[in-house]
Amino acid sequence: MNPTNPHIVIYSHGFGVRKDDRGLFRAVAKAMPEATHILFDYSPFNASSKTLTVKPFNEQAQKLRKVINTARADHPGAVIDLVCHGQGCVPVGILKPRDIRKIIMIAPPDDVSETVLTAQLSAQLGATIDVETRIRIAQPDGDTVVVRPEYWQGLADIIPVKLYNRLAKFTKLRIINARHDEVLTPRSFERLDPGISAVTLDGGHDFAEGESRGRLLHILQKELAV
Asked: Measuring CA to CA, which residue among 2, 224, 4, 1 is closest to residue 102?
């Protein structure tokens, strides 16, 4: 990192994962060793029980605000970019941070309504979701994700595309969609501001496959170059 022109990349992870976003963000950081990378957790994790509790979006936005403010205080004059993935794009849209050079959204949702999200989780878990109770989701890595009723209550009136359009008025916004997204239902970005740059790449939600991960990293290296 150039001390006279520091470059910081802050990462906003998605639903039910920890700060490295199942390794995706670590891979991005490794591909750009010249930058300073800030990964953080939105959701508290209990190591003894291996339980992660998902926080409502408004609380996530406030956590992001603190992280950005701390980065600015620690690195005056830094160029700051944000990389978001999945539901991690929503708190960025809610916060609409200023003085950010560029925001990259990877596989962002177009709908986070209770109806859509419960249908997605029900399809994955093979069980009906009751938003009035505490939901426990077993993850392949052995962690358990807990979703409390207040998470669902916090979804009211959140329309992601409107957030993205508003965000683009303050900073450069780039969207990278996954053509074979197995997590999100088919999405529609018809109302996305035409000034927002969007591209669709082959790959799943996490771009975990070798070729798709490589293409994603190549684009991010170019987009985030200082």
From this structure: 224
